[in-house]
Amino acid sequence: MTSDTADTMPLEAYLAQGGKLTTPENAPPRYRGELLRLMATFIDSELAGAAGFADIINQGPGIKERIAASRIVLEKLDHAERVLAVMGEFGADISRYANHHPWADRVARDSDLGAARHGADMRLAVLHYPLQDWLDAVVMNVLMGHAVVIQIDEFARLSYQPLGEIFRAILPRELRHTELGEEGLRKLLQEPGNRPLVATAIAYWRPRVAASFGSGSSAHFETQKKFGLRQTGNAELAAAWERQVDDVLRTAGMA
Fold first, then answer.
1. With CB atoms counted within 10 Å of each terminal CB, which end of the chain scores lower, N or C?
2. How far apart are alpha carbons 16 and 14 in whole angstroms?
3. Helix residue ranges per DSSP H, the chain
4. How do residues 191-210 score in pLDDT, each as one tens digit?
5. How many CB atoms lie within 10 A of CB 155?
6. Residue 212 CB contacts under 8 Å (≥ 6 apart), including other chains
7. What's residue 250's pLDDT?
8. pTM
9. Which of helix, strand or coil describes residue 21?
């Protein structure tokens, strides 16, 4: 956003026409606040997700599966670091961020958090639940992976250009994480006796992912849409996720 544009056009009108901001100096306080909230939620979710999945790597049934799980952990940490660097440009203290919260901490398996935040970090509620075993982790990765891809596709078009560029680079990796999860799910379903276990895991994780993904106050979503930080609201995103999950489960013979 140039100074001439700022002088002649209100920010909201500029953003509504597809305008982009390129530096922290051009971002007014309310825009900065919403952008920082969005970044913190993403970073904390990636760090918490990586921590939970790291604990499951050695339960992989083979070397290929363990390599895939290790890659997912590595890339999630890398994604968090990339977005954290942008947060630092807005004045956030990022030097000790990775150790600021106990990312591996989880609630009891039978807890029901709904969409509520839990603890001091900004991770999505679903990432407070523990993974039970390899099969459980694969099912969770498939369901959560589709939610993440839908959301990052949104973020790739957000109005803060440097961050949008990072999300565009991240998107193909997150797509691959989801594909790896689906490959793992198909392999699990080929094993005798796994189908009821997969069904149980789906019944556990689907409502928890849905609660997290469809969460967030409508006021925040409307403000973020107004600032070009989102294209749609949480209800539209959640509906798109439900359709994708139905398609995946139908293809796998689980719907």
1. C
2. 5
3. 3-8, 11-16, 29-54, 63-89, 134-155, 161-189, 194-213, 218-226, 234-251
4. 999 999 999 999 999 999 99
5. 22
6. 115, 124, 125, 126, 127, 147
7. 93
8. 0.91
9. strand
